Amino acid sequence: MKRTLWTASLLVAALTAVACGADFSPQSFIDKPRILGIRADPPDVQFSDAQQGTVVLTAFLALPTLPKDAPLGPREVKSLDWTLCVLNLGSAASYACALPEIPVDGDLATGTATFDGAVLYAQLEIIRPLMPKFVEFLKQTVTQSDACQNAVITQWDACAAQNGGDVATCVDPGFEAEKACILAAGQDITFRLTATWTDGTTDLVADAYKKVRFRTITAENPANRNPGFTLSVEKSRVAGTAPSPVGAVLACPGQTIDLEPVLLPGARETYIDAKGASQEEFVFLSWYTAVGDLDRLKSSTATVIPGDPIDLTNELVLPAAADMPDSFQAWVFVRDDRLGLDGLTYEVRRRADAECVAPAGFQGKFTPPAVEVVPITPVSAADRSPTDGGAA
Amino acid sequence: MKRLQTLLLSMTLALAAATPAFAQTPPSAPPAAGSADAAPTPEAQVAPPQLTSFKEAALPPDLGVPPGTYVVTLVLTVDEKGAVTDIQTAASDEPRLSPLAVDAAMGFAFAPAQYQGQPVAVQITYRYAFDIRPKERRVVQVFNLIEKGTRTPLDGVTAVVEENGRSFTSFAGRMEVSDLAPGRYTLYVPTGEFAEMRRPFTVKEGDVPVEDLRLDRRFGSTNQTIIRAPKEARFVARQSLEATELRRLPGSGGDPLKMVENLPGVARSSFGSGQLVVFGSSPFDTQVLIDGLPFINLYHFGGLYSTINPEFIKKIDFVPAGFDASYGQASGGIVDVRIKDDPKTALHGQIDVNLLHAGLYFAIPTTDDGDLQFAFRRSYIDGILGLINFGKNTSLLTAPRYYDYQARLRQRFGKHQFTLFVLGTDDSLVVVNEKAGGQEPTFVGNVSLSNSSHNLQLGWTYDHSATFKNSLSVQTALTQFDFNLFNAIKFNITSAQTNIREAADWRVHDKVWLHLGLQGLIQPSWYNVKSPEAPGQGEVAKPLSSRETLLVQGTQYLYAVSPFVSVEWKPFPWWTIVPSARADIYFGDWKSVSVDPRLASRWELIQDRLALKAAGGLYSQPPPPFAFLQGSGNTGLKAQSAAHALLGLEATPIDRLTVSAEGFYKYLFNQAEPSDDKTVRYTDKGKGRAYGFDVLVRLNPGGRLIGWIAYTFTRSEIWDFKTSSWQKSNYDQTHLLNILASYELPKHWTIGARFRLTSGFPYTPVMGAVYDADLDRYVAVASKNINSKRLPLFHQLDVRVDKEWVFDAWKFGMYLEIQNVYYAKNSEGIVYNYDRTQTSYIQGIPFLPVLGFKGTW
Questions:
Q1: The model's pTM
Q2: Which is more confidently placed, B58 or B707?
Q3: CATH topology of domain B2-222
Q4: What ipTM was reported for this prediction?
Q5: Considering the domain A224-392 in this protein, what is its CATH number?
Q6: Which residues on chain B are in Cβ contact (under 8 Å) with A6?
Q7: What class, spelled out in words, does domain B335-340+349-856 have in CATH?
Q8: Which residue of A has its CA nearest to B830?
Q9: Are the CB atoms for A374 and A236 separated by under 8 Å?
Q10: Residues 6+ apart with CB under 8 A from B118
């Protein structure tokens, strides 16, 4: 009985998560200003003794579509503050940073921040005198699969034991070993974005964390790229992560919109993992809407049996006429399991009531026009500003 | 005139009344000692008084009582010297005979009753029978008296021939009617222990017909008498629960093992978890045993139903703390399930059908003193759930399905008894989620659980004499546990465990018993695990995708040798002191040596009425297995230890009623807990404490009303190194109140109710959440004060109605148990929305009717 307690409670938790749930608004429903994602360009940054790349971070923000008589609340982006952390303690410590965070300059207008890897390279030397403390934190964050960092810890502990606890002589070899690890295997640097919205009197603040991998990129182990996809409705393209002709979805209240994403070629990359095995990326989509109900929060490339057809589709059920605005935004983001991310937004327009309801005196069963895509000006998610109500 | 004597003797404890054992003169030997075990129960050790000098009643010539058989039922108090010190007349067929029987009984002499070799005072029921008859007796009709439904031969039942008022009494199930002239008569059995009955019969010259007379017992619980026997000082806090008692009580669905959580000191477990939280200890710290040997899978699916057919269970011994050294490897409490050992004299069987499962049980005598029992049970929840639609993306590949089986062969050869007990259980569940949809996009595929164990238990007991007995038990168990959560968490664990237990009880001196024993453990385990670390106390759940998943695979060998000794010294009749000690030596892939000295004592302040008891000592056990797995744990952990101190009072103001109160303090140290240092992952620096008191008012079996009121106050705390303060542990339930009662009505109706009022579970509040943009998940930010909030108060009323229809050779029973009658909306947990800005409680069972049927023959 003892052994099963931990797993039995996991099972109960899992079944509860799958089968039950209180009547909360789902994560996919945008009912307040939110950060929906942060894209890093590139997600893998060159970081070697010879060369250090630059990364551009872009925030994706969303605002709700409010009922006409609802108070607007904080909607204007007041500030976007960016920092980075070299050694983040992870979810167990609510992403606290073991070392002092480093501010990163951002651009409020574009919702972006740029960080030069050379700065990080220069900062590495700061670790050297902090090595005893750094190793303590390293022990709190090292993962079972990180052979390099585990070796650093083992070497450090052996050195400390050999010197009767006096680590003075361990600092230099320890730092060099740690630096070699960072450069070779890479180091996930965690960026923190603090977004503040305001309505002039009240502020709303949200934090988000985004990792970027700084490592030595080689031909054998090339850089990861952000995945891309397009979204279609009724076989017509609505939007894409790359600039492309886009349309708006035109639908009647109460109708269901079948959303059909298609991953762009190369979106699921093949890479060599830490054990030297070839792996195909796992990719998932996160769905958001300001109005209506999505059938799934997320869709993914996971299948019950490997090789089965992948189903990334989703359905958006529109509300009844009384609750449906003339137009609203919806968002889709794609992520891979190597920190790659991209996203798009699309617009849903309400079809004229005259087309959606049966004319007076109509006898029989009325069928409103099918959902369709109407052309609009092409705008990619990345080209939007953080203040225009869509994805930044 | 011939005087007959009947000694009706049944040996049961005030706290543990059992199925009675009727015996004809001369008084039978005491019930056979229990199974192989170093902790024999009191009734197993009480040898009844032996009548050494019988005195005939002097009948005056002018008595004037017509010929017939008459019984005067006496309650005799026999003291430690075997003298009759008190006589009460409980019943009499003929008032004129009562003083004669009392006078005669005053002249009886007994060899005193023995408890662990020492003479003790007991109360017994003695039926003094008079058979006043003409000089020559001519049997004209014989009735075989049999209890309806159970086919048990009945003794001591008196019936009257209505036509002439002559009475006759049965012996060995046989009633001989004599000296009647040819003609038609009616035999009348008056209302009493059995329902009234009239049976016409015809007397013919030269013919002695034999007929069966089946009597309907009015109240099952009156089939019990009580002899007070001394409590064992070795287990001062022990509560013994008879299976027959427990199955009547509501809240268990007829499952006696589930009633343990209604005892004082046991916290309410969350719905379906089956966790035994005893005196604030972790469920890991309480050991479940079957006849003294460890048993892993006590419940199907962690708490749904116990894995042992109730027909096998004699009683449950529950010791929350302060036990002597014969129990070990547990720093919390002990739940010892005692298997029935009474001989089976006829073929008996049972079919049990309820909403969850159907089961079959049968017992058959194999030799004069040997028998075989067998049981099998299978659930059909899968059939019911198979009809339910779980949504378009989810389906049940294998709905929750369980089965269990038990077979027990018992054979006694004189002073030796051998048992072979085979028991097994198998649970399976597979749920398929066909595509992603929730917050974790990887959750596609199967959630499956497969849990099985197959045990073989061999026992040998040797009852050499009243001063020495020995028992040897060997158990080997193969357990397999497979769990898969969408391939994100996987456990594949196989364990082959062999336990050996040798125990001897030896009276080395008039006042000293020596209990010696040796336990051995051989346990290889094969594991392949993919899982995040087990959460620490009060830890707020984090998204699985945000946590490191550990992969460990290998074989773990664990061996243990544990000698123990316990000395039970009774310097005065009113004082028993029990020093004991055990050593647990572990080797293999985890090494540890612990030596645990213990001391217990019991003072009889007023003999049989009021006792003071105290116990304390050290208690050790291995850390949870996952904490010292090679690859993901720390093999350098010390044994987890606890120091217990317990002080209590126990009173028996009137027969069947006991009132006890205990105060306890436990200090826990060397506790395994997750470490911030991921290179070791677990540390043994954890410490905790639990303290409180409990009060139990219990009406013991032996009457139509049984039940108890139990209240426990507990504080269970752990030392939080991050805040350098004591914080509530996960197992802190401050107030626990359980009220249970069951009452037997005429015509085989029984009604019962259980009411529970307990503090809610503690939990750590969430202060907010931060957004992980790589996972698209919000990660909770927990309060630094772990378990600083509590779920609302829990309260629930359950009721139960039993009805039995008794036929000549079998019985049919039906019960309806309704849990949570008034639909209390109790909270079993707390859930949050995606960004932890909204909360809601997880509701427990709304209203659960359980209907069951049972046929017994």
A1: 0.82
A2: B707
A3: Immunoglobulin-like (2.60.40)
A4: 0.91
A5: 2.60.40.10
A6: 534, 624, 626
A7: mainly beta
A8: A22
A9: no
A10: B510, B511, B570
